[in-house]
Design a protein that fits this description.
By secondary structure, this protein is an all-alpha fold. It contains 16 helices and 2 strands. It is found in: Cell membrane.
Amino acid sequence: MLNTLRNRTFRHLFAAQLVALVGTGLTTVALGLLAWQLAGADAGLVLGTALAIKMIAYVTLAPVTAALAERLPRRAFLLALDLIRAGVVLFLPFVTEVWQVYVLIFVLQAASAGFTPAFQATIPDVLPGERDYTNALSLMRLTEDLEQLLSPILAAALLTVVSFPVLFGGTVAGFVLSALLVVTVALPMRAPAEEEQFWASTTKGIRIYLATPRLRGLMVMELAVAAAGAMIYVNTVVLVQARFGLGGSQVALAFAAFGAGSMLAAVLLPRLLDHLADRPVMLGGAGLMVAGVAMTPLMPGLVALMALWAVIGFGFSLTQTPIGRILNRSARPEDRPAVFAAQFALSHACWLITYPLAGWLGSAFGLAQAALGLAAVGIVAMLAVLRLWPAHDPVELEHDHADLAPDHPHLREGHDGTHRHPVMIDALHPRWPRRTA
């Protein structure tokens, strides 16, 4: 896995992601404590609303920024968005009203809606080999889990000597250092994109996504993941501080347990994926998450909750790490940025549903009912995945092109009659072939 770090460009991008996510992890803890300071026992509702605003920015702006990114230099685009994020976080320690939190969260996540898909779509160009890319995905999953493990532990340590608003300063430093690391590398040129109008570029990724069966199944699986994950992100602070009567440091430890489980799965996944297909691994992870959330009402205290959160975190990594492999298998190089943006937008649309649902259920009916309600959503979503994503999902599909003229270049290249090759949705294959073998 560590061999991928020999590539200088990936090494710098990996470090950029690491420092940005450590800073983001500090803000995750600080934002929960800020919500508690502003709203008390209704902190879960405030967090649910803030995170829903984050999802609105992701869902509405990711495809637009992906189309914009096709027309701008890749490195300059990433650099500008890192600096915008740093500037926004500077204001968070000074808010005094809940609505101010909502405004700043929207601006911050609007920048992230552009940065994250563009960053993710760059990695396959840096590491084109599938094994190297799989290892890179696991390493990147580990860095994302540092938001759940090392950052909360660091936050817990800092909270013993400083007040929580200081944690936002760590996020600013992380984004600035990330920008400096991006500047130090020359990023690969994008594959030439087709000349399209801006609206066609904006919707291209979603059109490819919705026309590909495995991606439709992936989208619904993300609803199961979001249902379970929303319980963690929205209601952990209320579980620990209101139900167990503990403090901010213990909230950080609960988040850390979730991250520890996810990191363990990320370490094991490269070898696991050598022997198993992506679909059963991801279904198993989603099942762990949904079952874990259903057990939340049985937790008697912090230690038991941390153990359960670790199991759910393990399942979370099983579902999220292979996503890049599936997207690469489903899109041409020139379409990858659009498809990554579509994944970002559509998956976060699921979180847009479950974040406010988690906050509302917890506030209106109690945490036990919230956990059971979210688990029910997850079960329904998993049943839908089994129908939408075929168990037999080969890369190469048998099909023909009855609608093409006999002298079409594609047919002259040896693709006349019934033939087989890797299929991805494009101008020649606007619909998924019905005939498979």
